[in-house]
Each structure stands twice: as C-alpha cells, then as structure tokens.
Amino acid sequence: MLSGLLIVLLPLILGYLVAVRSTRVQRKINRAVSGSVYLILLFMGISLAGLENLTSQLSRLGGNALLLFSITTLFNLSALWWLSQRLPLHTANSPVVKNAPTSKLAAMQGSLLLVAVVAGGVTVGLLAGPYVGETLFNIADLLAEWVLYVLLVLIGCQLRNSGMPLKQILLNKMGLAIAVTLAISSLLAGLVAAPLLSLTWNEGLAMASGFGWYSLSAILIGDQLGPLMGGVAFFNDLIRELLAFILIPLVIHRHTALAIGYGGATSMDFTLPVIQQHGGVACVPIAVVSGFILSLLSPPLILFFLSLSG
C-alpha cells in the first residue's frame, strides 16, 4: 500500500540529505525548481487536452476547484480568526518596510504566469493531438512523472538549505501555532469537501494538504488522481495565494495570525514580501517559520493520504 508513497517520497528524502553551502549552486537549484515546475505544468496542460469532452471537463474542474476553495477558506479563516483572538500580535508600532523586494502586482503576475503555462499546454495538446494521437498524451504523462522525481530531489535540497534550524522553528511558538491551525483546519475542510467532490475521505484529505503550495499539490495529485483532479488542486491553492495578496494589507494589523497564516506555505516566499511590507519586520520570522513547517508537511501528507487508496 505504501510502495507508491515510498517511490515518490524517496527523492525528497535524498535531496534533503544533500547540504549545499555554495550560494551559486543554491541559485542554480532555485532556477531548476522553477524550470521543473513550468515543465510539469505544461505537461499537465497537454494531458488535460487529452480528456474526452474537454469543455464539460474544464467546467467540472472549475466548479470543483471553487467548491474546494470555498470550504477550505471558510474553515481556514474561522480557525485563524480564533487563533488571532487567543494569540494577538500587535504590529502597529513595528517598523514597516517601504521597499519590499517584490510588489503584490509582480507576485500576482508570477502566479498568473503559471496559469498561462497550463493554458499553453492545453493549446499545444489540442493543436497537436489530432496529428500525433494518444502518443502525445502518453509521452506527456511519462515526462511529467520523471521531471516530478527530479523536482522532489531539488525541493528536498531547498528545504535542507533554507537556513532554518530546527531549534529556531520549535522556539517560535506563534509560527508553529499558525502552521498547526492552518493544517488542521484545511484537513477538516478536505473531509467535508470529499463527498461533495465524489472523492474518498483520504483523497479529500490529500486535496486539502497542499496548504497553498499549488505547483507541488497539482503535480502530486495529478500524478495519482489524473490531470482533472491535479487541475482542481492547482487552482484551489492558486486562488488562496491571490486572495492572500488582497487580504494581508486589510487585516494584518488587527488579525495578524490570520493574515500570516492564510497564505499557507507561500508565507515563506511569495507572500512574505507583502507580509513584510504591511506588517513590519516583527512578522517576518513568524511567517517564515509557519511557511517552512507547512512546506515540510505538505508533500508527505499528500503522498501518505494518496497511498491509502492502494
């Protein structure tokens, strides 16, 4: 039952064992991760083009993604609001960074570029499909699987060399509390959404375990449940990030835990500049710890819950 889990989790573990001290090599790894993500999402788009009754399938994809997103957001915001009341963090007097390294618009453009890559894959599949036939879609699935293994090795290496010692993570109680609250509320949402999406309970849990890491959740889910469910996972987590960009400036001073936590795994990278700019430097270590823990939890949880189907 766990053989599929081990096959996919092994590259992640192997990558985590590799310590990289050269900043030049780390930059190359970061670029390779980005390139791998674009490649896999392109292949996912090609696979989507191979679905029968594509128009109705895409309509179903959008409806399922919206349903999962709505339920997950309701659970997340309720739980994080409760945590904000229990663990308040006052950021009104915290120094605010005026020149954050990445603007909201630039970060959102990066997210939307990933959507464009998926759309480009669908276009390629539709244009080439009639001439190449099923061979194209089979090749796309096979290539996506192999690139996935490479990506997992690189992600494991990234996590190992993120500069976050275990002691620092465990001592940041608020970052840990935010990550645990977000994870538990997301999993509860997955259980509620599962029957509405015609999924088993463990598949619902897997769908909810992306925690905003849309590129990885789409890849892992798509590899096991097919491109349609991979697309649902992708858009569910992507919309979370886009909403986080809007939500953070509005609520970070009154409900800090909610603003930091809602971005999920992205609070350590994509949404961090927005958190830093509007919440001040006091929010940065909390956001990094929360995002790191969720990034560490997401791949094993997705793979574990999917393995229960075997």
Compact summary:
By secondary structure, the chain is an all-alpha fold. The protein has helices at 3-16, 23-49, 54-86, 104-132, 134-160, 166-171, 173-196, 201-207, 214-225, 227-251, 256-262, 272-279, 284-307. Helix content is 78%, strand content 0%.
- Class derived from helix and strand content: mainly alpha
Shape: globular
Stretches where pLDDT falls below 50 for ≥5 residues? 92-102
The fraction of residues assigned to DSSP E strands is under 5%
Put simply, the count of helices is: 13
Compressed to H and E, one letter per element, the order equals HHHHHHHHHHHHH
Q: Percent helix among the residues?
A: over 70%
Secondary structure tally: strands: 0
Largest sheet: number of strands, sense, barrel closure: none
Give the C-alpha Rg. Answer: 19 Å
Distance between the termini: 5 Å
In round numbers, the mean pLDDT is 81
